[in-house]
Each structure stands twice: as C-alpha cells, then as structure tokens.
Amino acid sequence: MDAQGSTLTNKYAEGYPGQRYYGGCEHADTVEELAIDRAKELWGAEHVNVQPHSGSQANMAVYIAALEPGDKILSLDLTHGGHLSHGHHANFVGEHFEVQHYECDDETGYVDYEGLREQAEQFDPDMIVSGYSAYPREVEWERIQSAAAAVDALHLADIAHITGLVAAGEHDSPVGIADFVTGSTHKTIRAGRGGMVMCGEEWAEAVDKAVIPGMQGGPLMHNIAGKAVGFKEALTPEFEEYAARVVTNAEAMAERLRERGLDLVSGGTDTHLVLADLRPSHPTPPGRTSRGRWRRPASSSTPTRCPARRARRSTPPGSASGRPRSPRGGSPPATAGPSPTASPTWSTRPRTRRCWPPSPRRSTN
C-alpha cells in the first residue's frame, strides 16, 4: 500500500525501461525492472510484461499480439466458470473474434477434457484459452496443451485467480507449457493491482508492442511498484506458508458448507475458492442477495452460475436475465486476517435461512 500510495502515481513513463518517451524515468526504470526480474524468478518465465492495468487487459494484449480479427477462439463457457474476457459475446473478444465454448461435465463439475479435444478438432481454433474465474479444481494444463497442439492452436492460460498458488507451488504451473500465461497481480499473489503477461522470447516483442502502443499509453508506475513489492514478499517462505493455509482453509470452508447440507460444485475444492450449488435446495434462484449469507470475515463471496445450468446464450454477471445459482466463496481474506498463523474457525452460520436447506425440525406451515 505504501508503494501504491507513493509519488510514483504522478510519474508519466510511456515506453519501457531504457526506452521511455519522457525524461527523468530512471527511478521508474528501476522499479519496473525489479518487478520484471522478481516475476521471472517467481514463475520461471522467459519474458514478463508487468504494464497491463488488469488481467483482462493482459488477455487483450495476447489477442492483439497473436491473433487477427475474425480468428477462432475456444474457451470455457462463462456459465461453467470462464471469464468475460475469454470470449463472451458482450465483451470485446466476442465482438472481434469467432468464439466457441467448451464446458464442464454436468455430473462431476470438472472440465470435460475429452469433450474439449473433440470440439477443438471440429472447430479448428486459432487459440484455446484455459484458466478460469469460477473453477475450484486444479487445471490440467498438459491435457489442454495437447488438445491445442493437435490442431496447431496457440494456448493462453489465464491464472488470474491462482497466481499466488502457482508461485508457491500449491497449483501446477502452465509456464513452459502454454504459449502465453496471463494473470492478475492482486488476488492470491497479494501484490499491486493490475495484470501481467508471461511468454517465451519468441513472443516478447509482439506482446510488448501489443501493450504499448497497441492498447495502452503510460503505465501506472505506482501499481507496478506495488507489484514489485508484492512479488518480493511472495519469494519468502512466509508466503509459501500463507498459500498452503489458503488451500487448507478453503478445504475447511468446503467441509463446513457440506456439514450445513449444501451441495458443492465438483464436490469440493483444490484451490482457494468454493462454489455452492443451490439448485437441489433452492429451485427458485435466490440471486445476488445470497452473497451476504456467508458471515464475514470468513470469506469473500460473489454470485455466479452453476456449470450444469447453461443458458443458450451466456449471461454476464449482474444481468437480470441470468440469476446466479452458485455463491462463490474464497479463503484468502481470512487467511491474511489478524491471526494469519492460525487457521480460522469458519463461520458458515447463515444470517438468514434463505441460502440453506430447510431444517427438518422447523415446520413449514
């Protein structure tokens, strides 16, 4: 926070270290180089661009660098855990590219990897996007890369939600497997707000040109300073311990929810988030009001839609025509709370009974 609140917020520094359009950027160069070097050490990437203002803009940079308008993208459906920037029709990606979506298995809640491969062979995409915004299980990067290689497609792995888990070794890394890896820098990695792109040297120049002048002007140097500080913290043993507790606490939260009688999408979690499946207990969707039912500070929750309830046309979050059926809770807030050395006692007692199965002891008359 000190880095992000520094006077770097006032500094214009268009360009890259040693190649700025403005003078007096020596300190900005040092800050950005620190962020890049630490990111390379954390994730083992050959090339890192830390200038994207968000994870979505990091994805945009990859599309600009590697694709042409009208090219084909195969990505996970939004209602199955994908992200708007992976090809939703209301997003810029859906406007400029031909997009098809693969899905999760309705029974297991896991990505249908065999279905993905078959769909790739039929659709012949130019790029396959993996990595998701509402998926509680580990992603099998190698299987998706195999499907991409079979149709000569590029592979973009978006690790926005699991950057910290990947850095700490709590989740397998797609770096060195996928052609591009993008992510947010303020979620499980706990660094300055923004995004980043990682790739091999063969794509470095194209990615850098896509960021500036392709889609952005000046970088947000105060945020890049926050990234540099956060990345340094993530290189410590303490961060590895934190990431391990994040996963353990998510598992504990999942267990408490199961004890309360809720079904979970995919049956549990391997990551930092848990998705509750309200369909069995709530035929009528409770909608976004459900987000407040998991008592804070136990988790941070947002509404999403259950994978098995797929609409003909995906509905963006908050749309009145697509009411959420799956509250998404995460363990990082409590894990980083006032007593980070101890696992919190998860409070999943509802403030109201709206999001919980009816008690057999309570009369409904």
UniProtKB/TrEMBL annotation:
Residues 274-365 are annotated as: Disordered. Keywords: Cytoplasm, Methyltransferase, One-carbon metabolism, Pyridoxal phosphate, Transferase. Residues 1-281 form the Serine hydroxymethyltransferase-like domain. It is found in: Cytoplasm. Signal peptide: none annotated. GO terms for biological process: glycine biosynthetic process from serine; methylation; tetrahydrofolate interconversion. Homodimer. SUPFAM superfamilies: PLP-dependent transferases (SSF53383). This is Serine hydroxymethyltransferase. CDD domains: SHMT. Its EC number is 2.1.2.1.
